Inverse folding.
């Protein structure tokens, strides 16, 4: 079996989060549509007392069918906790089947069932937009090829119950009644895409599942006017129609009607890089579910490229938390392993020596590995909002952390008091969405302050010839900084994402001569702000329509 770390190493030339933040707006809205899970002709599990039984995961369907899928672990990423069947004797009321037939489709929108993962493709990372849907094990989606009716070689057909008169002899009691068992297991419907248009992709997935529900209900109720072939054709037409839609450019509105749907799907592509959409998807949820202290701990760990593991059983929340890290890290781009949702059986990647940020639904079952994680990695537990660090390795304090916390605290409090259930799929009203812009403003302002005050203003020359790869010069630069900032800055200046930003930073120094100042700039200090940073903030402000928030409209009035 291929090792996940080996697979990542084979794709290392393309393994860069930068592909996620600036993908080329060409090609298709999705690369693949997949259905994964257990095949309808899988061996019937032996279920005792309703206990779950492990099943083999596989890709059951892919679209386009003629495009090669070279992702050996994709079925595991769709069901990171494994695939389990549940079952038991069918009751007279068939309550289990009725719940499946007539349960609310809105439950699919919950964070237990809808989530996003990230997997390395051949040319770039791909988002997996995934919905878990509980189904009868023997009944597959309408568009799957018909299963072989013959039982598998390792499974004997269940004998039919004998009639009482044949089985019971004189003076003997009739045989006990055989119960019909129903077995259920989730299947996973997934789009693999280069673009974080998550709500659009989820809308299409829910449309597909609505068509499947209609097919299942009609077939179960014996509605002869309903054609299974028509259901299959509708789903395939829907996929083809979505596949042929042009990828929208910035600020472009897209409206199209899917086959079998009455309403149209409307989507406006936000301006700027994809980090704006990641912020829109995950930042509000991040501030809903974590304390401000732990948000800043997570930010500090990402800035310093620490080995960080986030543990959360709700996959939708887990992926939103981790994806929200990327936009607040800008202008830097995390260069280590970044996996928002890691399959449990691929836990060996948690021992990787390179920097990583990884989300897991639960800790590995191997006690020795858990002990190693506790001793060597930074752990954040969502359910308890607990941050755990190795006893012998403290995390350096973020420079001016108290100031950043003070500016974020009113926003965090307002989000907490909104009492909105955490769900990144749900659209926010404008008043709450404005908080996302405010969060981005504070973190971008902080990054500008950190660059100008802690780095540029302490460089002894202003002609752009400073050598960041010279250990002696770096040591002198750190020694010239405010004493309390030195532990953090020493590690940060050695990080891979800062190393990749050095050329741009040197260009800033060449073009602008910074005014010398102390660690707290004077009120009339003109910031040496990267054009990229400033323009991205302004674009984000326009997108969210937050012009009314005067205290967040400029960078120059922050940290004075």
């Amino acid at each position: 079996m291929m090792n996940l770390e080996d697979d990542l190493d084979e794709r290392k030339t393309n393994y860069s989060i930068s592909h996620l933040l600036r993908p080329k707006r060409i090609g298709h809205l999705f690369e693949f549509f997949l259905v994964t899970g257990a095949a309808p002709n899988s061996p019937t599990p032996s279920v005792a007392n309703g206990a779950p039984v492990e099943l083999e995961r596989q890709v059951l369907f892919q679209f386009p069918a003629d495009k090669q899928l070279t992702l050996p672990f994709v079925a595991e990423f769709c069901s990171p906790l494994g695939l389990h069947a549940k079952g038991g004797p069918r009751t007279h009321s068939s309550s289990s089947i009725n719940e499946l037939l007539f349960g609310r489709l809105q439950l699919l929108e919950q964070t237990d069932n809808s989530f996003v993962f990230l997997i390395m493709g051949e040319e770039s990372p791909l988002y997996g937009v995934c919905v878990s849907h509980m189904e009868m094990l023997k009944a597959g989606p309408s568009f799957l090829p018909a299963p072989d009716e013959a039982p598998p070689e390792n499974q004997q057909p269940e004998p039919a119950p004998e009639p009482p008169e044949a089985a019971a002899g004189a003076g003997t009691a009739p045989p006990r009644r055989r119960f019909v068992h129903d077995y259920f297991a989730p299947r996973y419907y997934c789009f693999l895409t280069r673009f974080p248009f998550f709500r659009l992709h989820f809308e299409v997935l829910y449309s597909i599942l609505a068509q499947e529900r209609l097919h299942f209900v009609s077939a179960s109720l014996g509605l002869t006017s309903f054609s299974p072939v028509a259901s299959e054709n509708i789903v395939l037409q829907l996929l083809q129609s979505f596949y042929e839609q042009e990828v929208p450019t910035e600020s472009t509105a897209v409206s199209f009607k899917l086959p079998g749907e009455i309403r149209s799907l409307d989507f406006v592509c936000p301006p700027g890089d994809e980090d704006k959409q990641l912020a829109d998807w995950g930042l509000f949820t991040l501030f809903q579910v974590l304390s401000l202290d732990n948000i800043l701990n997570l930010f500090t760990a990402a800035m310093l490229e620490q080995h960080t593991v986030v543990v959360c059983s709700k996959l939708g929340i887990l992926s939103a938390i981790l994806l929200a890290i990327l936009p607040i890290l800008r202008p830097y781009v995390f260069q280590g392993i970044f996996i928002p949702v890691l399959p449990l059986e691929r836990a060996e990647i948690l021992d990787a020596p390179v920097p990583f940020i990884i989300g897991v639904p639960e800790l590995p079952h191997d006690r020795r590995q858990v002990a190693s994680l506790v001793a060597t990695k930074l752990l954040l537990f969502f359910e308890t909002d607990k941050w755990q660090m190795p006893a012998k390795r403290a995390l350096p304090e973020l420079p001016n952390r108290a100031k950043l916390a003070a500016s974020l605290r009113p926003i965090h409090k307002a989000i907490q008091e909104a009492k909105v259930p955490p769900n990144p799929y749900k659209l926010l009203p404008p008043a709450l969405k404005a908080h996302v812009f405010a969060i981005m403003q504070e973190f971008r302002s902080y990054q500008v302050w950190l660059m100008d005050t802690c780095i540029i203003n302490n460089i002894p020359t202003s002609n752009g010839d400073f050598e960041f790869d010279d250990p002696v010069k770096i040591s002198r630069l750190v020694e010239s900084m405010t004493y309390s900032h030195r532990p953090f800055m020493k590690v940060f200046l050695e990080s891979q994402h800062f190393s990749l930003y050095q050329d741009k930073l040197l260009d800033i120094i060449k073009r602008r001569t910074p005014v010398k100042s102390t660690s707290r700039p004077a009120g009339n200090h003109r910031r040496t702000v990267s054009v990229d940073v400033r323009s991205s903030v302004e674009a984000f402000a326009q997108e969210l329509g937050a012009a009314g928030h005067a205290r967040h409209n400029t960078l120059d009035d922050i940290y004075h």
